[in-house]
């Protein structure tokens, strides 16, 4: 089965070229295409894309919105299987072959795989389990019952995931309200609620470098929490019809906001960030709170 591999990129020219090159060494016996959607990068990304334009499709996203960029890539795809890998990640050669094996049943809508840190030793994430409060249960030893409207459910990591295009379009594609963070998780929740399954391929490995971005430094420390806070609030409030306990929902949101404030304070007290970065992060948290509640009321 032919696959479309989509890379959504923004100002990562220093890592993007290696990711593109790695896709030429996949051992997948069927055909596949590579689609790069650029979010108006201002570094050397354009030059890199021009270098490989004979071998890839190139799209443009007018805004720094990951869900919008993903939807643009999906619209460009000529296949029904849509794989996503980050612009700072490298797949092992068997990645695509192994992850595609999981589409052996008609109700499988998406498959995720394990993600190594770039050292190739420690895992960033294996099977991804999350709940409607955006709590990560991936390390839980308890059995997970993932079914339509279940509190806990299986998800995928965006840098190592593949979806059936027809099922994604049936549930409305990526929600562009999620400009960054929880975008693939929210999509998985809708796929599951529609009756589809999310599978996991334990031998479809990707190595993820975790490069710097506009909101995160190379030590994986967030400097801007606005989009994270906004989307966490919006995500939790979305499921009021499932959880049906507004007091618990509001308490959970308050605790998550408090945790972010405490994390930012920890970074400052331990000289991980300076005073300017600390104050800027505080402003971003307040901005995220305001936008999250505003967006949840808008629906």
TrEMBL record:
InterPro entries: Glyco_trans_2-like, Glycosyltransf_2, Nucleotide-diphossugar_trans. Keywords: Transferase. Gene3D superfamilies: Spore Coat Polysaccharide Biosynthesis Protein SpsA, Chain A. Pfam families: Glycos_transf_2. Residues 4-168 form the Glycosyltransferase 2-like domain. One of its GO terms (molecular function) is transferase activity. The keyword Transferase applies. This is Glycosyltransferase.
